[in-house]
Amino acid sequence: MKISKRLLLILIVLASCVGCDQVSKSIAVTNLPDGQTFSYLGDTLRLQFMYNRGSFLSLGDSLPDALRFKIFTIGVCFLLAGILAYALFSRPGRFTVLLAVSLFLAGGVGNLIDRIFHDGLVVDFINIGIGPLRTGIFNIADVAIMVGYLLLFYSVFQKQPVAQEKASPATG
Known about the structure:
- Helices cover 55% and strands 13% of the residues.
- By secondary structure, the chain is of the alpha+beta class.
- It has one domain.
- It has a 4-stranded antiparallel sheet with strand order 1-2-3-4.
- α2 (65-89) runs antiparallel to α3 (95-117) and α3 packs antiparallel against α4 (140-157).
- The chain is globular.
- The chain starts with a helix and ends in a 15-residue tail after the last helix.
């Protein structure tokens, strides 16, 4: 796939995912009182606003502030730059891999924006589950990252067309 087509796909995924993520977080910050839970669909969906100091499932939230900033803001900037470079300049491969990498990038950018504008914190507000079996509290950027992971996992097991070798005429 040409670099211009790759860039177009990346920009479309970034704009749509980061846009939805930031709008939904803005609505959550404005309309969900801190500490209050709203339950929908027979308690399958809960909306509960919280700031996450760490990463996935609050990992790293107890680290000192300076170290959290270095890892989750500066480190993530470098990681996202690497992901973008890979998406743009890697050897052309499957569309699903490029889409997965673009989703990783979009989710990372969405959460990085939060860290920059919310003093190192990420807005989380969605919780799903059935009975006592529940997810952690997450956001749309986290969904983009997980969908990217699932797409990448799927593409690993997707069958590749077998290239047929050309038979060379026997010399004799």
